[in-house]
Design goal:
The chain is of the alpha/beta class. The protein is built from 11 helices and 14 strands. The chain has helices spanning about 10-20, 25-35, 50-60, 135-145, 165-180, 200-205, 220-230, 235-250, 270-280, 305-315, 335-340; strands at about 5, 60, 65-75, 80-85, 90-100, 105, 110, 125-130, 155, 190-195, 210-215, 255-260, 285-290, 320-325. The strands form 3 sheets. A 10-stranded mixed beta sheet has the order 3-4-5-6-9-10-11-12-13-14. It has a two-stranded parallel ribbon with strand order 1-2. It has a two-stranded antiparallel ribbon with strand order 7-8. α1 (about 10-20) crosses α2 (about 25-35), α6 runs parallel beside α8 and α9 runs parallel beside α10 (about 305-315).
Amino acid sequence: MDKIDIKSLSKRELEGLLAGLGGERYRSGQVCRWLYGRGARSFDEMTDLNARLREKLKAKCRITHVSLLDSKRSHADGTTKYLFKLEDSSSIETVFIPEKSRNTICLSSQVGCKFGCLFCASAPFGFVRNLKVSEMLDEVLFVKAHNPGSRISNIVFMGIGEPFDNYDNVMNAIRALNDKDGFDIGARKITVSTCGIIPAMERFAKEGLQVELSVSLHSADNATRSKIVPVNKKYPLSDLLEACREYVEATNRIITFEYVLIDGVNASEEDAHKLAKLLKGMKCKVNVIAYNQIKAGDYSAPSVEKTALFMRALKGRRIKAMLRKSRGEDIDAGCGQLRISKL
Ligand code: SF4
């Protein structure tokens, strides 16, 4: 019989398992602190559990971990990209982004992706499978263990995969990341990024989590957005914006829109005016980022002057917009680029 993947259990499932093994419910907090707080790789390390319970856990469960295939560290800004091998030999990427005021991990949620966005290095290789909860948590555990001096303050689900296409596992991973006995990362410091899966956004609004939502917008023109984010053909811009407004109303939270500037596609002053018109009156902010060239694409970022014009046009119309620096450009840190170089 296959052993239970203990990190994929929710806290309640873990309590049930421990109760079945004759352990008290509060032991689940101890086990979580060992697994996530201290990164234990064996049940023998859990010395404050009695020996009998440890033996039973050993017989019934297993503790997973990811193996490192490759890593690259940016000399420019310290951003580090990891390529991991999973138990079935699939590979995923995780990025560690150290900054003065925070340390962020960008997590993958799937092996590959179905959604085929124009600017994305993961897109050409299609979808393989969803990540398990344990695999997402193992991404964090590895980065934590290899950067002992840096407290992990922020998590973004913006790596390979569409998090809302692996909804239940991502929600369970978020609960473990947020749990005081787990990673103890504040819900507001966790961001889920979607390309605009409307039914999942509606479900997410009802979760009662204080987690941030970020939507990949990339154009205020329906036909152009369908080229950049093909899922727009299924969930068109007008419906998406309505879902965003409903989300803001239901949660009283703001939405962040991601906008990758691609020269000749979505980066003109007129594009900025259209965007400002679309977002008028909504509680939101826009993160603008210049296209990070991937080896799979023929597109390029607009010039510094064109970018400045775009930003000025947005701000002139009172849209809260930030021009984000592309991190780790010297190590191909855009989503899926290390994986692409190995495939
Ligand atoms: S940007 Fe995200 S949703 Fe789009 S193809 Fe890449 S991984 Fe998938």
